[in-house]
Amino acid sequence: MISSALGYLFFIAFIATFFLLLEQKVKLKIFKFVPSVVMIYAFSMLLSSVGMFEKNEAIEHIYTLTKTNLLPAMLFLMLLGVDFSHFFKLGRTLLIAYVLAVVSLAFGFIFVSLAFNFNPQIAAAFGALSGSWMGGTANMIAVGSALGVTQEAFGYVLIVDSVNYTLWVMFLLFLVPFASLFNKFIGATDTQVIFSQIGCACTVGAKRYWLLIFFALLISLLCQLIAQHIQVLGTTTTVVMLATLFGVLGSFTKLKTVNGSSEVATTMLYVLIALIGSAAVFESFSEVWIYVLAGFSILVIHAILMVMGAKIFKLDLFSIAVASLANIGGVASAPILAAAFNKSLVSIGVLMAIMGYLIGTFGGLFIGHILVSFAQ
């Protein structure tokens, strides 16, 4: 049993590093269906459940301290490399498809929350999931922390995210050969927008990890100091919103060109996932399938509204499919789907997905507060 704060933090970092390297170096097929973030959470939770980590004051203190400081630092770095000016150059068709994806998902979450009669804690957890499905896992953690989601509820939505995301990716890839038939039914023409250089300029030159860590922790400190005096919907929510704002502002400065921000942010994300897992203990998995069904229901509503929107606005299959997966799957999968249509359109998938880093946090907070208000 680990009783010291240093030993606890070492094991958390080890778990995150181990599964990250396993995914990157070994290339196991299982990672196509079960993302490394889920494995990190599950293994960390398993160690906690068997009593590996002693529940004492020192460990609880280092847990709170690490999570409080890493969360805003991660959000800041995630947003540094985003070039927002390119997003508005996508063109009318792709912009409408992206907005339609966000709005249809929001409606799906609200409708399903009411239909399944979620309690306040599960409602907050699905609010965090909406952050993920409009952005990514980093947004899920940010929204979940702001809404006070318990570790057990967070574990449930991680499973929902993994299962439904996998099915959704497979379904959209299955549809690619039928693009011409879909476009004929809708009355749309194929999108011909092509980008060669999009988004981040922070992949050139030497990686400056220490400089990025310094600024990230500085922003984290600044956000927490400001939140002590000015609060919007609670301290954590204020910190999350401030970190997002500073990240957006930083993306318009020379910090954007500093190489390595993505790697440092990803490292922080994986540590946060392991941290949250280490504090979770599931009493029963019997309820998880209800939540998986709720997640699937959200996707069905999303799909119906996307097709209806495509018919109204004459949107082709490429536009709505990539816009959908850019929200639900993020940077890891949207470019793959775009490439399945046409390799020259990969950059569109990237651009739509990185916008989720901004949309996901604010959209998730908005939806989360609506879901919680309905559940009370």
Key words describing this protein structure:
single chain; 376 residues; Na+/H+ antiporter like fold; globular
Q: Strand percentage, roughly? A: under 5%
CATH class: Mainly Alpha
Main β sheet profile: none
Per CATH, the architecture is Up-down Bundle
Determine the CATH topology: Na+/H+ antiporter like fold
Uncertain runs with pLDDT below 50, 5 residues or more? Answer: 192-201
Helix content: over 70%
Number of discrete domains? 1
Structural class given helices, strands, pairing? mainly alpha
- The tally of beta strands, per DSSP, is 0
Calculate the mean pLDDT score and round it. 79
Radius of gyration in whole Å, from Cα? Answer: 20 Å
Counting DSSP H or I runs of 4 or more residues, the number of helices is 16
Query: How far apart lie the N and C ends?
Result: 40 Å
- Inertia-based shape: globular
Pattern of helices and strands: HHHHHHHHHHHHHHHH
Can you put this structure into words, describing what you see?
It is a single chain. With 376 residues, the chain is mainly α. The chain has a single domain (5-375), classed as Na+/H+ antiporter like fold. It is 73% helix and 0% strand. The chain is built from 16 helices and no strands. Helix 6 runs antiparallel to helix 7 (137-147).
